[in-house]
What we know:
The chain is of the alpha+beta class. 28% of the residues lie in helices and 31% in strands.
Amino acid sequence: xxxxxxxxxxxxxxxxxxxxxxxxxxxxxxxxxxxxxxxxxxxxxxxxxxxxxxxxxxxxxxxxxxxxxxxxxx
Length: 74
């Protein structure tokens, strides 16, 4: 999923734990934060995680657009 801009974790850190995360980048490409969602694998399927990952990417784009690409500390 790295091509889509987010990472998936499925039972890698702990059995039964899944997560999706995407970086928030400054206008110059530096990572200044991240958004992640995690939960039990019994409730979040890989399909759910991909859908959530796409939503995270959309929200990050909105955040960057609303801040003229300047997100990091002043």
